[in-house]
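Record type: monomer structure entry
Structure origin: computed from sequence
Chain ID: A
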Amino acid sequence: MDYQTGFFYLFATVLLFAAYRVVTAQNPVHAVLYLMLSFSQASALWLLLKAEFLGWTLVLVYLGAVMVLFLFVVMMLDVRLDDDRWGFWQNFPLAAVLGALVAAELIAVLWVGFPAISAPASVALPADYSNTKELGRLLYSQYLYPVEVAAVILLVAMVAAIALTLRKRKDSKAIDPGEQVRVRAADRLVVLSMAATQKAAPAAPADEEKSA
């Protein structure tokens, strides 16, 4: 076994452990941190496959922006750590069946291989070959429609997340911008007519003060 195979098994083991902890961690902050760890290990696997662009994109985009945003959102939300709210063991049978089905499909695909799209081993690549340029050409030519479908799905997911976040809550202190635009000066400011000055109170006579 060479060193690349050893690194592959190391990164894959850590990736599986981190993915398992993402699902089983009761603290949402810990789950996000384990998800960041799993992304870093997946990036290392991409680098082993000589897909440098995908590996660094996974680090810069997901670890550097998306997951940090997730971490801040989870820490700012008031998430209660009640055991009955998570319901992990209630949904475990369905999750196990779906996980076993996905694992069986992946094993079947990897066992059969990809003979239709695999390049011959004897093909020599030119010196100025760029896998990033080749990836971009395939994404925006041969796989243009799947990329557009994925973009629409991500847009729908983003709109759904915004709608769920901005739902009306009793403890929310959000302000309606429409009400601020429609406000009038008469609703906020009341002008009272008052005298410019007030007369001073009459002073008590000196004789009454001495008798008192």
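Annotation 1: The mean pLDDT is 77.
Annotation 2: The radius of gyration is 33 Å.
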